[in-house]
């Protein structure tokens, strides 16, 4: 499959052929495993997350969606930003802050924008997508979805991205992709983008009705309900059908900084 990836230490995206099942890259006549390559986060723009876009996620709130301040389910996309300090990469270490007992995994399909997107028509919205990537939207567990959760979602290293960007035309139907999360090789979460409240074209149209998405920006389609919790030492693998695998390890933030690993 055609994809773009970035070698660690380089600023340029490379066009490569990849196998999202085996997580390998074809380099000339050779096939290399990602485990043998040092690759960087392939994204340079702003990352926008979407809350409450999986049917089960909204249903799990129950009557809480009728509480103040909104008193009803959302009628427009609920967005937040993962700033640049959160950016991490495939194989990168995710720091567990001191005093936090567990972190929440946020497995998300990322839509990488290919051209300036303003007030898109749902019928041609996908043509503004350059490709797809995997994002691990890490959070400190918290209850409220209404107030800005900056201290819970915007800590250093809390947004792992990659391992590459699969070109749009290589994915036949992004609204029907299986998603799985493995913790220490054990399956802990399984869902599909078929369960999105706003399918991808609709989400793009609704978001660009009130804001511009620029080339290189990434829009996360949402995070499924029942997000797995992880602790120090846990190994995470997020698999999205046709996109690949994104792997990371949770480490003690204080110890990793002391050892110069972060």
UniProtKB/TrEMBL annotation:
<dbReference type="GO" id="GO:0016787">
    <property type="term" value="F:hydrolase activity"/>
</dbReference>
<feature type="domain" description="Fumarylacetoacetase-like C-terminal">
    <location>
        <begin position="46"/>
        <end position="250"/>
    </location>
</feature>
<protein>
    <submittedName>
        <fullName>Fumarylacetoacetate hydrolase family protein</fullName>
    </submittedName>
</protein>
<dbReference type="Pfam" id="PF01557">
    <property type="entry name" value="FAA_hydrolase"/>
</dbReference>
<keyword id="KW-0479">Metal-binding</keyword>
<dbReference type="InterPro" id="IPR011234">
    <property type="entry name" value="Fumarylacetoacetase-like_C"/>
</dbReference>
<keyword id="KW-0378">Hydrolase</keyword>
<dbReference type="InterPro" id="IPR036663">
    <property type="entry name" value="Fumarylacetoacetase_C_sf"/>
</dbReference>
<dbReference type="InterPro" id="IPR012686">
    <property type="entry name" value="HPA_isomer/decarb_N"/>
</dbReference>
